[in-house]
Amino acid sequence: PEYQHVLALWRSEARRGRSEVLATPYRDALDVDEAIAGLSLLWSRVATSLPNFQTAPGLDLDSLYLAYLPRVRRAETTYDYYRVLRRFTAELRDAHTNVYFPPELAQRKNARPPLRTQRVEDRVVVTAVLSPELEALGIGVGMEILQIDGMDVDEYAAREVIPYQSSSTPQDLLVRAYRYALLAGDVDRPVRLTLRDEAGNVRVGEVPRGGYASVRSAPHTTDTILAGGIGYLRIDGFDRTELDEYIPAAMDRLADTRGLIIDVRFNGGGNTIHGLRILDHLTESPYVAGRSWAREHVGLYQARGLWPHTLDFGSYVRAPQASYHYSGPVVVLVSAMTFSAAEDFAVAFDALGRGVIMGEATGGSSGQPLRLALPGGGTARVRSKHDTYPDGTEFIGVGVQPHIVVRPTLQALRQGRDNVLDRAMEEILRRLGEG
Known about the structure:
Layout lengths: L1 H14 L16 H18 L11 H14 L3 H13 L7 E3 L2 H7 L5 E6 L2 E7 L2 H5 L7 E5 L2 E2 H9 L8 H11 L10 E6 L5 E6 L13 E6 L3 E6 L7 H11 L5 E5 L8 H8 L7 E9 L3 H5 L6 E9 L11 E5 L6 H12 L3 E4 L9 E5 L5 E5 L2 E3 L15 E2 L4 H5 L4 H13 L4
Parallel strand pairs: 9-10, 10-13, 13-14, 14-18
Antiparallel strand pairs: 1-16, 2-3, 4-5, 4-6, 6-7, 8-9, 11-12, 11-17, 15-16
Helix pairs in contact: 2-3, 3-4, 10-12
């Protein structure tokens, strides 16, 4: 009986905060009480789990909650409701604290054409065309987007996109607004684009958001040997289990190169262990991968005036676990799209002092997120851990800063060149005494 009593207590505690009762299925509209409960769950988890508000100094979370209650009440549809929740999390200015549409809404309302866009030299340009159907419409890499649905592109972004983006830094916000979400919308409603090509010709056309018969996808990983015997390793995400085998094999293939370029410019994160497996090949000595802490929510501490209380995990020291150790010069390429676990890798590489970081400041956000189920079938996550350099230097809200700043150029994009990679090649040769 005593054992059953303990099990009952454990089960009771395990149910606390899991929100199964609030994880209701999708419906086109939610009742008001259900909607308020979802906002309340999100607000309470932010209050207890988000380590700090350093990216939103002066934020009064309770006042924000009160301000959003009437907005939640006024939401007529589930889509409207999730838009309100996304604006709520955007005001927290934390890129690891987000709200996601239910799958039914994501498929219908968050569709985007197979185009890649980005701000380059203060212009919004097409950086990749991933369907022959779009090429047949005359859309090409390097074209500048002037208007969306008849509205100036920056005005459109400011009104329709930016208010719903959770971000930790200005550079992260630009990526989210102009690369990931700019053309998202109703799958049944084409987006009307006004484009200008390199010659100055302007054209206007409707671009479907869905229904493409053929869509190309770039490889997730690349390893090759470039001119001059320089190795090149590109990984666009640390989120796949196959990297357990791929990374050691790729590093073995690149073992005899004279220098190495590791490209994580388009790596949005995943599991930090994959980046550490790369670092294992770059040093023979134990290295410090980073430092972290979390908020410890204990009511007794608060009652005794010891609030806030933090749980310091200290610095993580890792011993190299590789078949060999690479000794040539190394350049790591980063950008504002380098995010989360990829930033953990950049931090550890920088602290190790093993080589040069080149490119642009990273997104500036990491930390294990706590996941929540919300009414209507959607989900949310809240950052639950704060990470820094081993010596306490902040990169959340700042970004990992490159040693050598190199930005993409419009000329190189239109010529089909990667000027950032070219500059990395020059740096490797210089370090080899050939530049």
